[in-house]
Amino acid sequence: xxxxxxxxxxxxxxxxxxxxxxxxxxxxxxxxxxxxxxxxxxxxxxxxxxxxxxxxxxxxxxxxxxxxxxxxxxxxxxxxxxxxxxxxxxxxxxxxxxxxxxxxxxxxxxxxxxxxxxxxxxxxxxxxxxxxxxxxxxxxxxxxxxxxxxxxxxxxxxxxxxxxxxxxxxxxxxxxxxxxxxxxxxxxxxxxxxxxxxxxxxxxxxxxxxxxxxxxxxxxxxxxxxxxxxxxxxxxxxxxxxxxxxxxxxxxxxxxxxxxxxxxxxxxxxxxxxxxxxxxxxxxxxxxxxxxxxxxxxxxxxxxxxxxxxx
Length: 311
Prior knowledge:
There is one protein chain. The chain is mostly beta strands and about 300 residues long. Helices cover about 0% and strands about 40% of the residues. The protein has no helices and 28 strands. The strands form seven sheets. A five-stranded antiparallel sheet has the order 1-17-16-15-14, with no helix packed on it. It has a five-stranded antiparallel sheet with strand order 2-28-3-4-5, with no helix packed on it. Strands 6-7-8-9 form a four-stranded antiparallel sheet, with no helix packed on it. It is globular and about 45 Å long. The two termini are about 35 Å apart.
């Protein structure tokens, strides 16, 4: 059972804004794709150091473009700002940003890397509409979340860092932000979702803690502040918002998912879950063991989805 704890009594006025989030991915043929799901889809493939670009989620298996990173890069998550620039978190210690010109070809436009950034082992990324972004970093056994304003790049210091005993961040699994700027961090060690005030920094305590998860990984938040969390027990948990700082009873989706590693919501209010073998799309009101709306089959050797995002 998931319980709510409120270390700090604080009422936040939630400003709902359309934000985009990223999670697990792959590519393949789609079945039963909603006609309203015509939006650009980006797929990160860690094993082959690629980001594949699909013109919309209803198209076939072939990407319109493949962004090839260096062989040492392992893209594990992605997120997109209002301008459609793709922020890619690489597990080997960097964040790369890709933008498209009039020719719609994506090229590297920013790069965050170096000792000042403190990026060691990113596990998740979330960018807001303006291009400021959070990175959940496992560190060297010392987990934290870093925030960059999104202006300058290269080897710069983060603008703020969430870390320390009071934060509850030990082994982060993912990060997301809502329209009001609150930060949602999953912690695999404590089996919690930790929710932070927009102005939180250093060793600040979360304003809400959601207990009872099972080694939670990636997390997504939609514009109604509903939460979608990948669990380490091959399930996905949906928590519907019931107030500024409260969420209803969890709904667990299993559908025999194998090693789900990422999650996102698209503009058609569908849940996209990246797991072994492809991406499964579910309705947001799905129940336990619900059938997916459609499924993208992965093509060998791209059987390990690592990130998906929509714009």
